[in-house]
Amino acid sequence: MRVTAPVSEWGSDFDVLDPRYVADPFGIWDQLRTSCPIAHTDRRGSTWLPTRYEDVTAIAHDIDHFSSLEVAVIPFEGEEPDEPVLPYGLPPISADPPLHTWTRRLLLPWFSHNRVESYEAMTRGLCSGLIDGFIADGRADAASDYAQQIPVRVIAHILGVSPDLSDTFTGWVRDVLEFADDHDRRVNGIQGLLEYFIGEVAKRRLEPGDDLLSELLRTDVDGAPIEDSLVLGAAALVLIAGVDTTWSAIGSSLWHLGTHPADRKRMVEDPEVMSLAVEELLRAYSPVTMARIVTTDVDFAGCPMKAGDKILMNFPAANRDPEVFEDADEVILDRAHNRHVAFGSGIHRCAGSNLARMELRVALEEWLRRIPEFALADGEEVTWAGGQVRGPRLLPVVF
Amino acid sequence: MKIRVDPDKCQGHARCYGLAPELFEVDDYGLSTVVGDGSVPPELEDRARLAIANCPEFAIEEI
Predict the structure, then answer these.
(1) ipTM attached to this prediction
(2) What is the distance between the alpha carbons of residues A265 and A270, in angstroms, rounded to a whole number?
(3) Which chain A residue has its CA at the smallest distance from B60's CA?
(4) Which of A58, A192, A199, A391 shows the smallest number of beta carbons within 10 Å?
């Protein structure tokens, strides 16, 4: 991890990798919202950080001024190869219309309500099996032993990859996203994923199955077979976008329940509250910050944004905006007014949101059914991953 | 009570369907439409209001 100077002024020199921001960004957002609601920094290039709901959602909807061609919060500081393996990036997340429009339509049916329901039994069995592995110990790491084990295996199932490779996948995805500031790890993760998928694509061209990868390969684009690089990009996106994001939401929710006994008790005793509670936990602990690139110079809410500047799409801060959410910093499990944007808003709304919700709900239901009483382990540290995706990395609990 | 979903605003979050599956249908792309002509039976009015208050795109309205 590259060491940068500590932040002394958040409005003009913020750093989302500053350890204080990673550990507890909520107070920083509250302070910015009232003093400098769109913060700026020149660290890692000219970058803006909106903190109000109104600004974040307005930028998400203004796709003419704010492009998705570069969505990584932390820039990749490697040497660009002459002929990039993924010339289209990871569509549709890193694309603008028209590429965004048709690649998104290819992926969405795989994550529709009906399709996601068909993955629920598998997810429940997986969660229960994980709990079998540690319940007799009276203690576990709710992040690394549980939350971090779930989404990668569900996605592997959907992509049609072998479940015994899940651990390897998890490693690559962590290298790419969690250690985004560590050049070598990031390169290692990207290479691992690419080599794996290049091999799988070749296999599926010969022997198609009924999995997502095979289905993508069957696509015609204006009468011609889809390019491998587009299939690779979309497959890598499904894996990367659906793994540490969801495990962070599961981990943060378990952290909340482990530190708020009244909420834990309510969720155990009143299963009816689950559907609203899942949304409230997603609001309060939204894991994902995406980025946009300014396309042409624009004055936005008094900020002179220049073409090429980066915007960090601070959906997590938008979801704590007291202008929109009453008692925004409090978790109210049955919150009725909750237009949260944990999955973004506008045309790039998370394509896997139905799947993420199902995984979070099932992971909490199974945990609370088997382990209704638990708390953080005394004297053991909880650590958080920051940057693009925020969630607990280590979460030792006892029960 | 009668409701409608603005197809230009809906982005397929499917929050409405999750909260009130009796009142909404979603297609394979998540896009939502009201069931029937959007008339809400009295016993489901609270659910309809909940759906309106949870749509991140402000796409559902009472008409």
Answers:
(1) 0.96
(2) 8
(3) A339
(4) A199
